[in-house]
Amino acid sequence: MSVAPMADIRTGGAAQFVKRLASARELGILIALLLVILAATLTNPNFLFSPDGFRDLFLTPSLLLLVAVGQAVVIITRNIDLSVSSVVGLTAYLTGRLFIDVEGIPILVVILAGLLFGALLGAINGALVAFARVPALVITLGTMYIYRGLNVSWAGSNRINASDLPRDFRALGTEQILGIPVLTILAVAVLVMAAWYLRNMRGGREYYAIGSDPDAAHLYGLRVTRRLISAFVLSGALSGLAGVLYAARYGTVSSAAGTGWELQAIGAAVIGGVAISGGVGTLWGAALGAFLLMTINRALPILGIHDFWQRAVVGTLIIGAIVLDRVLAVRQRRKLIAQREEAS
Amino acid sequence: MSATAHADSPAASTAPTFADYARPLWRRVLINRESAIIAILIAVYVVSLVAVPNFSGPLTITYLLRDVAPILLIALPMTMIIVTEEIDLSVASIVGLSSVLTGLLTQAGVPFLAAALIAILAGAVAGTFNGFLVTVVGLPSLAVTIGTLALYRGIAVGLLGTTAITDFPEAWTDLARANIPGTPVPLIMIAFVLLALAFGAVLHFTPFGRSLYAIGLNKEAAAFSGIDVGRTKFVLFIASGAVSAFAGVYFTLLYSNARGDNALGMELQIVAAVLLGGVSIFGGRGALHGVIAGVLLIGTVGSALRLANVTSDVINVITGLLLILSVISSSLLAWAHNRRASALGRRKGVAGAVASAT
């Protein structure tokens, strides 16, 4: 008799409410995204219906999507990675240098090199955070300076120009398959794999555990150090891939490539429902957040708002997202307490 | 010596004592993080005097202090915020915002003093918004200030666009660039010294300042001790906003230039300098003299390297390395201390068991 009401609470009210809440956030962002596209298209049909417009809708957010997914994994473990922008810049320059210095190097090798280099930079971050037990904010602040400084001193005043890169590689940035850009397909493929890993594999679930309560995770026997390093390696590798694709997309790579991307990525993740305090959020939300941010940036001029106000819009969205998170969390806690009171 | 004396008393053998004053005064004052940073600063300065050409000229100090003054100013409230285990990343955006407001109001014909005061008030309002979100709504300050960093910078850029306002009353720009008569020290240092004395007095000699350390060490215990944690943090964010806006007015006058992206990225330099100065990112630890030494150290290193014709990217790499080394060193020191303490405890434990058995 007493078991049935208990089971009710566990699988009935509370769990269902939480599940609805989680899916509501991603759905909300998707609806917001569609509304923005609708508003922009109504004002200027070329936003969606011209071939350029349709392509840019998918192409522009693709690179940020990769960085935001990596950032989301790190934020879920209750850390932060400010160095992603410098990793993007470094690997973009590395890509150009590889094509210039090594004759006839296969594109796949360059992509792998970028991935591995980014992973190495991320591993440095992860090792410092995991072993020195210093907050990731400080470590990645320092590595952001260091990596960017290395990038600038390596590049000097040189720039990689589009003519330095092989045509096949540049084609990656502009080609489409069935109307959808190749870069977007790549980014979405990575997103699907990463999201599946985080949802269904033990390693992925452990990220959530570590983010919710690092001490409990440690006491439970999870290899927190190893997982933390892997989270940063993943973030670095994805930023590295984004850097390689940056070179493919834009052709011109200066030493300032990727500047400011860390804030955009954090903003995208936060808007997409990944809580800064860790343990909450999905990669789909972060991806949708990246899409929303970039689409709003493109839609602002069409809606008559000068794109100087872009950053203010991003800031308002971030603040709105975390206030919303807080309000919902408080309300959920009250409901759960009320249900527990009802049952007893 | 006094620790072992304590260990003899029966109460101390069961409970650990907090041997805060166990070390003699000269060790407490001279062997700590702040003294280490001051020593490194003096060492770097002396080495630069000798090794770098033109470093010993009078202009060096003038330019160094002039450029580093905004960071010195903002590092004061930032220290207090980090001691309470919060952070304010929006300071540079408030500098930019106050710079833009000063420029726009001056352009509209408002007398400069009034424009500056309105800009400082706007900074205080920005700080109030930060404080409201952190203390009343209860959001983590990292997330809030990342959002307001974008928001305030966005408002600054949105108001001014890509244009810059360069027309400011000469009397005021000359004042910003003037030195104390007869010395190479810029006039702004007077304002800084006054503020530093005020902040230092509050932080180290008032109950309010002690409460900051209490909040940083253990927020719940502080709340239960009767400290109004929310109001304290609120006040700190308002102070941070106002001081950042004042630094913004000075920045505008110094370069005679009001742009939306003034002081872009300065918040990271300020946090790096504060952490270098011995303030723990976990809160509850730190002193102003260490922070001032940290800011001056970064300024001196940058100035010396620039005069030695080293490019600014290498200076950035060195700043990053300094930051990482400083936080790792405190981790290493804590680890070494723990190992020594546990070894000591084990030895004492055995001795205590033997003593109590006999």
What topology emerges from the helices and strands here?
The complex is a heterodimer of chains A (344) and B (358).
Chain A: H1 3-43, H2 46-49, H3 51-76, H4 84-101, H5 107-132, H6 136-155, H7 167-174, E1 176-177, E2 180-181, H8 182-200, H9 202-212, H10 214-220, H11 224-250, H12 261-271, H13 283-302, H14 310-343
Antiparallel strand pairs in A: 1-2
Chain B: H1 2-8, H2 10-14, H3 25-30, H4 33-51, H5 58-83, H6 91-107, H7 112-136, H8 141-160, H9 170-177, H10 188-205, H11 207-217, H12 219-224, H13 229-255, H14 266-276, H15 288-307, H16 312-357
Condensed summary:
The complex is a heterodimer of chains A (344) and B (358). Chain A has 344 residues and is an all-alpha fold.
Can you give keywords for this protein?
heterodimer, A: 344 residues, mainly alpha, two-stranded antiparallel ribbon, 14 helices, 2 strands, disordered N terminus, B: 358 residues, 16 helices
Question: Mind explaining what this structure looks like?
Answer:
The complex is a heterodimer of chains A (344) and B (358). By secondary structure, chain A is mainly α. Chain A has 14 helices and 2 strands; from the N terminus they run αααααααββααααααα. A two-stranded antiparallel ribbon of chain A has the order 1-2. In chain A, a hairpin with a 2-residue loop joins strand 1 and strand 2. In chain A, helix 1 (3-43) runs antiparallel to helix 14 (310-343). The longest helix of chain A has 41 residues, at 3-43. Chain A is globular, with a radius of gyration of 21 Å. Mean pLDDT of chain A is 88; it is low at 1-9. Helices cover 76% and strands 0% of the residues of chain B. Chain B contains 16 helices and no strands. Chain B is globular and about 85 Å long. The two termini of chain B are 24 Å apart. Mean pLDDT of chain B is 86; it is low at 1-13. At the A-B interface, helix 6, helix 12 and helix 14 of A face helix 8, helix 14 and helix 16 of B.
